TrEMBL record:
Organism from which the protein derives: Algoriphagus antarcticus
Protein name: Uncharacterized protein
């Protein structure tokens, strides 16, 4: 009897996780279907306005920005992205504060991000920078305070018609104002008062070396090392990085960004 019970029990142990896995798969599939249905509803629901004409979205963006965020002016349409810009000053340096908006008519969505750049070469970059000087953040991530978003929460959807699209544009400019402006203000204060950044500025202000050679040496090492910051062995970079690491009171997040921040500082040095 004991052996029989054991014999019957073992297959159950083996099958049970499979049943659970199948249940979870079914549940996940249902959730995906529900999610796609919600997105379809958002993008196919009709209103009484006309379809968007070619180039009309630019006018809607500029008009809405002038009403909600008048300090930001339309800068350019480049790399499939509409960019709005506001300029501010800190430590005799210009901060380029940027709203990036990618619009697709086919997929009927907007992807939005916000950036604060000290280095103008990053103005049209779509990379989410990991240093302290040129942060770039997805707007939806800021809004939800999470990087793990499902597709419905990751984009702003429209239906390709003027009325609904305008409402969507008003929504994300409102989010830029509510969640993006504090992000920019926080970065401005960081540039003024952060001890690591201050140490770095002092370093490059005192640095006297050939800018072109410095750029060439670091760029070559990066390219040879697969663009990994850890591949940079150039003495000035190493010296700056070590000095930044010695700054007291830094957080874990700041320590993780020191490699990139040292590189950003030297980029500023050779571009100004």
């Amino acid at each position: 009897m004991i052996n029989r019970k054991c014999w019957h029990f073992k297959p159950l142990l083996f099958i049970y996780p499979t049943v659970i896995a199948n249940d979870r798969t079914t549940k996940n599939n249902k959730e995906k279907v529900n999610l796609l249905d919600k997105i379809k509803a958002l993008t196919t629901k009709q209103d009484k306005s006309p379809e968007l004409k070619k180039g009309e979205i630019k006018h809607i963006l500029i008009q809405t920005a002038s009403e909600i965020l008048p300090d930001f002016e339309f800068l350019a349409y480049k790399n499939s992205c509409y960019t709005f810009q506001r300029l501010r000053q800190v430590n005799n340096l210009t901060i380029y504060e940027l709203l990036h908006i990618i619009f697709t008519l086919k997929d009927k969505n907007f992807a939005c991000s916000i950036a604060s750049r000290l280095n103008p070469e990053y103005i049209f970059s779509n990379h989410y920078n990991i240093g302290l000087l040129n942060p770039h953040q997805d707007l939806k991530v800021l809004k939800h305070n999470s990087g793990g978003l499902n597709i419905q929460d990751a984009y702003y959807f429209h239906n390709g018609q003027v009325e609904t699209t305008t409402n969507t544009v008003e929504q994300f400019f409102g989010d830029f104002k509510k969640y993006g402006l504090p992000f920019l203000d926080k970065q401005l204060e960081k540039l003024k008062s952060n001890s690591i950044i201050k140490c770095g500025f002092d370093y490059i202000d005192d640095l006297q070396t050939d800018k072109e050679n410095l750029k060439k040496e670091i760029t070559e090492e990066l390219n040879k090392g697969g663009l990994l910051l850890s591949s940079i062995k150039q003495p000035i970079y190493i010296d700056l990085k070590e000095k930044l690491q010695l700054v007291s009171g830094q957080s874990k997040e700041e320590r993780q960004k020191i490699q990139k921040t040292a590189h950003e500082l030297l980029e500023l040095y050779w571009t100004r």
